[in-house]
Design a protein that fits this description.
Elements (H helix, E strand, L loop, with lengths): L2 H13 L21 E7 L5 E5 L10 H7 L4 E7 L16 H14 L5 E5 L1 H12 L6 E5 L15 H17 L2 H15 L3 H13 L2 H13 L13 E7 L8 H11 L6 E7 L5 H4 L1 H12 L1
């Protein structure tokens, strides 16, 4: 594999979260129609609201197992960002993506007269933090599944957006320029680094290929350049952070992983950190029982 392709893989491994589109009825009670994402409204009407946000290039089906467990006791609003996993890009095809998603999510919550728990994985976790920062009145609790307030911390805990900007732009440009067959051929390597579960891995590979490449690359670039560390101390919403650890990964060390996440969330006053053993980035595939137990305990 060429060095440029390896560079794209190294970032996509952690940022990416990918699965196939699900069915389900759209949220019919809402007076606001989002253009940046779609929503499936499921679960039990009249119960507390929970919003579930997938990660970069993920479809909403990444939450299928967790949604099934939560459905009896919660009303679920399961998002998918437009342009991901085969969905039409809409306004996400050009210009900034993440601020528009956060603003429309705020409008969706207000229109529904909700005060939900918001659960986000990967890029969805960053969007959850951005929402809690910009609109703390919108959320009752938040759950972050393997996300950082600034992705550059993976390279260097003291990194800045300015310092990694050239590398981020190079990754963006290389991803856009990569031929479709080369991108597809890379998926087995990407999948192995992101998820251990074989069935989940197949979903990951299939839907990354189906994602609009421009939306993928632009959202990744925004993720790499978004730094909300200065605001972490202002996010007082009760929060749960779940992060993975897999001892089979070469060079893996619990102390190093713990230090990364504890350092990233140190300024946040009301956050509980839980390390999930024997899992990679997609905790919902690798350790669905552990994820559900932690989420349900936190929600109660």
């Amino acid at each position: 594999m060429k060095a440029s392709a390896q560079l794209v893989v190294s970032v996509a491994l952690v940022l990416g979260g990918i699965a196939l589109l699900s069915g389900g009825s759209q949220a019919g009670s809402q007076t606001f129609a989002p253009t940046r994402f779609t929503v499936v409204d499921s679960g039990t009407v009249g119960k507390p609201d929970v919003v579930l946000i997938p990660g970069l290039s993920s479809s909403r089906t990444v939450w299928d197992a967790e949604a099934k467990r939560l459905a009896p006791n919660y009303r679920l609003h399961i998002l998918q960002v437009n342009g991901f996993a085969g969905a039409p890009a809409g306004p996400n095809a050009a210009g900034p993506i993440l601020p528009g998603v956060v603003q429309e999510l705020h409008q969706y919550i207000v229109a529904g007269k909700m005060h939900p728990v918001v659960v986000g994985h990967s890029l969805g976790g960053l969007l959850t933090l951005m929402l809690a920062d910009a609109h703390p009145e919108d959320v009752s609790k938040i759950v972050i599944v393997d996300a950082l307030p600034f992705y550059g911390m993976v390279f260097d805990p003291n990194a800045t957006p300015e310092a990694i900007a050239p590398q981020a732009k190079a990754i963006h440009d290389q991803m856009l320029a990569m031929p479709a067959d080369q991108f597809a051929a890379m998926q087995p390597t990407m999948v192995k680094a992101m998820v251990k579960d074989e069935a989940g891995g197949k979903l990951v590979a299939a839907s990354s290929i189906a994602t609009d490449r421009a939306v993928f690359a632009n959202a990744m670039l925004e993720d790499l350049q978004t730094d909300i560390r200065p605001d972490m101390g202002k996010i007082k919403t009760p929060a749960l952070l779940l992060y993975p650890f897999d001892a089979t990964v070469p060079g893996a060390a619990p102390a190093k992983i713990d230090a990364l996440y504890k350092g990233a969330y140190a300024a946040m006053p009301n956050v509980k950190l839980v390390r999930v053993e024997d899992s990679r980035h997609f905790i919902m595939y690798d350790q669905p029982g552990k994820l559900d137990a932690a989420v349900e305990e936190f929600l109660k």
